[in-house]
Amino acid sequence: MKAVVFRENGGVDKLTYTDMEKPKISPYEVLVKVHASALNHLDIWVRQGLPGVEIPMPHISGSDVAGEVAEVGMEVKKFKVGDKVLIAPGVRCRKCVYCITNRDSMCDNFKIMGFQVQGGYAEFARAHVDNIIHISQTYSFEEWAAVPLVFLTAWHILITQGQIKPGEDVLIHAAGSGIGSAAVQIARLAGARVIATARGSEKIEKAKRLGADEMIDY
Length: 218
Known about the structure:
Blueprint: E1 2-6, E2 15-19, E3 29-37, H1 41-48, E4 59-60, E5 65-72, E6 84-87, E7 90-91, H2 97-100, E8 111-112, E9 124-128, E10 132-134, H3 141-144, H4 148-161, E11 169-172, H5 178-189, E12 193-198, H6 201-210, E13 214-217
Parallel strand pairs: 11-12, 12-13
Antiparallel strand pairs: 1-2, 1-4, 3-5, 3-9, 5-6, 6-10, 7-8
């Protein structure tokens, strides 16, 4: 398959478009034909190199993947070839006490697709069936690819850690960013009063459209 990879850390010049081996799936995995993979800032940090963090080389970045099912493992029952899906990028062991009690981000072996494991800047990407989510045709593949990592992060901040409740006030900084715009929508969905900050009228209006009750242009 074709993929965008780098073999050493550095600038954009380290990226190459080349041939890589097509992933082989286990009985509990799904192979996804990638239609869109977003550019997350994490992809830039990983390419540049993070101190003390080892990643597989040559490396395929891409934490945010949307596409359609190309192949399913023999134990996979919920998906079939042709299904439109996105991949949740958080990879857990599914065995430790944290994973069993739905606190998988605390798993000692927790990894992020496109970071510690190979990602979606390729024709195909594989993931455990637990990480595969059906998507509707309401949005394009490109729009769905903007969802996974930022919504995962914002949900963890607001719901898992913050435990926000209906009627509470929630202040969201940088509402024009990926995580910020996701946080506005999640907080609104949770019934909170959303106060959002951003810079410039365009970002302020976007935050308002996404559900912010009060806007502060800093």
